[in-house]
Amino acid sequence: MPDKRTSDVAGVVRKATESDASGIARLYAMLVSNPAIRVLPERLTEVANDPNTALFVFEDGGAVLGTVMVSLCADVMFGRRPFAVVENIIVDEAARSLRIGERLLQAVEAFCTAADCSKIMLLSAAGRERAHRFFERCGYSGSTKRGFVKYRTAFAARD
After folding, report:
1. β-pairing, 63-73 with 53-60?
2. Beta strands of 1-82 (E only): which ranges?
3. CATH, residue 103
4. Closest to 88 (Cα-Cα) out of 105, 76, 109
5. What is the residue range of 67's domain?
6. Fewest Cβ atoms nearer than 10 Å: which of 11, 31, 34, 58?
7. Alpha carbons 17 and 49: distance in angstroms, whole number
8. Who's near 142: CB < 8 A, 6+ residues apart?
9. Radius of gyration, CA atoms only, the chain
10. Is 153 domain-assigned?
11. One digit per residue, pLDDT tens: the chain, 159 residues?
12. 47 is a domain residue
């Protein structure tokens, strides 16, 4: 029997549906400790209907074991070619090293190829070194750009 930690799992990557809300919320809770996380089923439908956004899940045996979101951003630098931003990629802690993350990123790349994207960008929390090594193994460079984030709580107050 092959070592399950290094072999592929038999699940599928697909676009998220309303019924995935609780599974996605569970995964997000593994990604960040934030009591404000609310994955609304109706929002998943809105995202599914947006041609510039895709929320993928990896499902195996009815369980959502991974997710990733990709959004296309309009750009003017390369004609009409958009660029993409990847957000909230997470694989269930108990299912890591099963190539689920690779399969999710392959779905992202297929989506971006179909949209003729010029590049794919992603941010990752500075302390997630294992994730950084994974992204680099998947061909992403962590040394060519530097990401900056300003969260809603730090936005300037407006009158």
Report:
1. antiparallel
2. 12-15, 53-60, 63-73
3. 3.40.630.30
4. 105
5. 13-145
6. 34
7. 10
8. 132, 135, 136
9. 16
10. no
11. 334 444 578 999 999 999 999 999 999 999 999 999 999 999 999 999 999 999 999 999 999 999 999 999 999 999 999 999 999 999 999 999 999 999 999 999 999 999 999 999 999 988 999 999 999 999 999 999 888 888 888 998 665
12. yes
154 found inside a domain = no
Residue 86 lies in a domain: yes
- pTM score > 0.70 for this model? yes
Instruction: State the distance between the two ends of the chain, measured CA to CA, in whole angstroms.
Output: 64
CA distance 97 to 93: 9
User: Is residue 30 within 8 Å of residue 92, measured between CB atoms?
Assistant: yes
CB 91 within 8 A of CB 65: yes
| Domain count within the chain | 1
Q: Is the distance from CB of 14 to CB of 110 less than 8 angstroms?
A: no
**Per-residue tokens: 70:** 């990709």
